[in-house]
């Protein structure tokens, strides 16, 4: 028996499924888990319906937000229920086939979310740094092609990662656990590809956005003092709008990084495949999918208006797609 097999056996013994007695704490955890799943699913579903249905929201940036909402929706449907159940039950009860699906979809949607946020950072940088070139070159169709390529590449990458890694360490089924062990090579590749590259893009481009936003703030101040022409006022209004959009999206990105960094830092410095802290950091990563719709509700008036239209069934009107929501 190899050293890895010995370690995996120890992990299996350590996390064998205990007898579960129904208690007030257990019921409370189940209610919280159900509430988190429902909020994630329905919150992101509202974003998906809003962006898809209302033509006024068919903008390049909103296509990226739609892609992020779809990945968050998949987290709520296919990932969070199984992981939260594992937390409340302290074991895996769904069998090896569902375990393989769970591991693939969780790796896939996590990487998709990270790269969606990176693409949003790139989009905001070019929208603010070169607004005229952005309006000329960046269209909804072009962004949709980029998003589809992003999904295809990341699905292929995660499928290859689990397939080739499976020949050496792979998916380990303990009697009561669903574990994934990456060998040293794939672990390093995954860390660089899914964490270092996109997070570096996010940080670099948003630093550049803040630098440009500061310059715009000074320019707006000068325009407000000196401008008398109508065109100058329009320019000031446009720059204010871009700065506001960048500010809101920066909040989304800051929350995302706050949820993301603890998990990957733990992965980088801890060799344990299953620990209590590991489970808690993973659920923090997934709960970002729950938080995003709350951010939209707090900072985007169009999302609140769309939600009102959807929940009051005004969306069933034949002309609802043309309603003004901005």
TrEMBL record:
Q: Where are the transmembrane segments?
A: 25-51, 63-82, 94-122, 143-164, 191-213, 245-265, 277-299
Keyword Transmembrane: yes or no? yes
In terms of one coarse class, where is the protein primarily found? Answer: membrane
One GO CC term on file: plasma membrane
State the UniProt keywords alphabetically. Cell membrane, G-protein coupled receptor, Membrane, Receptor, Transducer, Transmembrane, Transmembrane helix
Q: Where would you find this protein in the cell?
A: Cell membrane
UniProt GO MF annotations: trace-amine receptor activity
How does the protein's chain sit in the membrane according to the entry?
Multi-pass membrane protein
Q: What Pfam families does the record point to?
A: 7tm_1 (PF00001)
Q: What PANTHER family does the record tag this protein with?
A: HISTAMINE RECEPTOR-RELATED G-PROTEIN COUPLED RECEPTOR (PTHR24249), TRACE AMINE ASSOCIATED RECEPTOR 19P-RELATED (PTHR24249:SF381)
Record family assignment:
Belongs to the G-protein coupled receptor 1 family.
Which protein are we looking at?
G-protein coupled receptors family 1 profile domain-containing protein
Q: What is the lineage of its organism?
A: Eukaryota, Metazoa, Chordata, Craniata, Vertebrata
């Amino acid at each position: 028996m190899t050293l890895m097999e010995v370690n995996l056996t120890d992990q299996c013994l350590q996390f064998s499924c205990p007898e579960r007695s129904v208690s007030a704490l257990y019921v409370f955890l189940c209610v919280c888990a159900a509430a988190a799943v429902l909020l994630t699913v329905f919150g992101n579903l509202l974003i998906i319906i809003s962006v898809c249905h209302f033509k006024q929201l068919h903008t390049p940036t909103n296509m990226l937000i739609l892609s992020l909402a779809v990945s968050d929706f998949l987290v709520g449907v296919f990932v969070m229920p199984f992981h939260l159940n594992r937390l409340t039950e302290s074991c895996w009860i769904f069998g090896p086939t569902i375990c393989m699906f769970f591991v693939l979809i969780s790796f896939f949607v996590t990487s998709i979310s990270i790269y969606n946020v990176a693409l949003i950072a790139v989009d905001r940088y070019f929208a603010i740094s070169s607004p005229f070139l952005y309006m000329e070159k960046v269209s909804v169709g072009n962004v949709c092609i980029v998003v589809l390529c992003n999904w295809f590449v990341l699905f292929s990458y995660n499928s290859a990662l689990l397939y080739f890694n499976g020949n050496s360490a792979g998916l380990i089924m303990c009697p009561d656990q669903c574990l994934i062990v990456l060998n040293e090579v794939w672990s390093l590749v995954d860390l660089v590809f899914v964490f270092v590259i996109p997070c570096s893009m996010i940080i670099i481009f948003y630093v550049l956005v803040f630098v440009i936003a500061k310059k715009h703030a000074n320019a707006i101040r000068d325009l407000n003092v000196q401008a008398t022409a109508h065109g100058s006022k329009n320019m000031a209004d446009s720059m204010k709008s871009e700065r506001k959009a960048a500010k809101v999206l920066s909040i989304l990105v800051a929350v995302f990084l706050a949820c993301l960094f603890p998990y990957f830092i733990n992965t980088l410095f801890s060799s344990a495949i299953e620990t209590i802290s590991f489970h808690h950091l993973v659920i923090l990563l997934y709960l970002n999918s729950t938080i995003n719709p709350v951010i939209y509700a707090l900072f985007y008036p169009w999302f609140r208006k769309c939600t009102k239209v959807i929940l009051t069934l005004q969306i069933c009107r034949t002309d609802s797609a043309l309603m003004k929501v901005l």
